[in-house]
Design a protein that fits this description.
Helix content: 25-40%
Distance between the termini: 9 Å
Number of strands: 11
Strand content: 15-25%
Largest sheet: 7 strands, mixed
CATH class of the largest domain: Alpha Beta
CATH architecture of the largest domain: 2-Layer Sandwich
Oligomer: single chain
Number of helices: 8
Order of helices and strands: HEHEHEEEEHHHHEEEEHE
């Protein structure tokens, strides 16, 4: 087994990835924003939240699509971009900037090329029918998650064991989810990720949001019109100027410290040097 990386080593690689992403955005005049817990960490700790293990970045859809095309053509020795369009076993409707020299072992992420990563999320313009879109997207998202659980179970068991241990349906809707999920298994891991990505696009309105992943983020688009630099782990990165409004809407009283019981990492994963 290759050498296992510590959390500090993983974070160092993530910062290198964020510096690389920043350089690309500056070179091609793309706007990026530190997001979610990363911005929270920048505001409260000028770095990672002590128990956090990832980095999140937002780009508005047009810049996001341009960024993906650029990253796919850049010949970088250390980082590459993974999407549901360029990687067969990738099942997220957003991108990850991945370090090529590391490997993530995670039961929830059976992605061969996955290494230490940064999550890169698109923000889409949303109209007043956003809740209708949300319910559609939630339906597709549930298909993705349930389908992954079923495939994981089939892989670990024979069909008889799967039949005996199958998911207990609570309501008829759950039965529909499971039936469609099983029927879609031959379509590949990223079939529903592509559906989810397409479903959220093509709207117009004065809101910007990410509604395919919890926590749901929907904001007045004016919030993204002004940006400023924040110190994060000794480097300066850009995000929303009015961080207080963004963080308050996302987390509530974000200035209050979480109880120890909730100071846990998002991901249960191990990271190794890639052979």
């Amino acid at each position: 087994m290759s050498r296992k990386l510590s959390l500090d080593e993983q974070r160092k690689i993530q910062i290198e990835g964020l510096i690389y992403l920043k350089s690309i955005c500056q070179k091609y005049d793309l706007k990026y924003y530190l997001a979610s817990g990363t911005l929270l960490g920048a505001v409260k700790y000028q770095g990672f939240i002590p128990w956090d293990d990832d980095i999140d970045v937002f780009l508005i859809r047009d810049d996001y699509e341009r960024l993906l095309k650029i990253l796919e053509t850049e010949d970088n020795a250390d980082f590459m971009v993974l999407t549901c369009y360029n990687t067969k076993d990738y099942y997220y409707p957003y991108a990850k900037l991945v370090n090529k020299h590391t490997k993530v072992i995670d039961n929830a992420r059976n992605i061969k090329k996955l290494g230490v990563f940064i999550d890169v999320f698109p923000l889409d313009y949303l109209d007043d029918n956003v809740l209708d879109y949300y319910h559609k997207i939630r339906f597709v998202r549930n298909l993705v998650s349930r389908r992954m659980k079923i495939k994981k179970h089939i892989k670990k068991s024979n069909f008889k064991e799967f039949s005996e241990k199958k998911v207990k349906f609570k309501i008829f809707k759950d039965f529909i989810y499971e039936l469609v999920s099983v029927l879609s298994l031959p379509l590949g891991y990223n079939f529903w990720a592509k559906k989810l990505d397409k479903l959220v696009q093509g709207q117009s309105g004065n809101k910007l949001g990410r509604i395919y992943k919890d926590p749901i983020n929907i904001f007045d688009s004016k919030l993204f019109s002004l940006s400023k630099e924040y110190v994060f782990e000794g480097h300066k990165f850009t995000s929303i100027a009015n961080a207080d409004k963004y963080l308050s809407q996302t987390y509530g009283d974000y200035k209050k410290e979480l109880p120890k019981s909730k100071q846990i990492t998002h991901h249960q994963m191990e990271v190794y040097e890639r052979d």
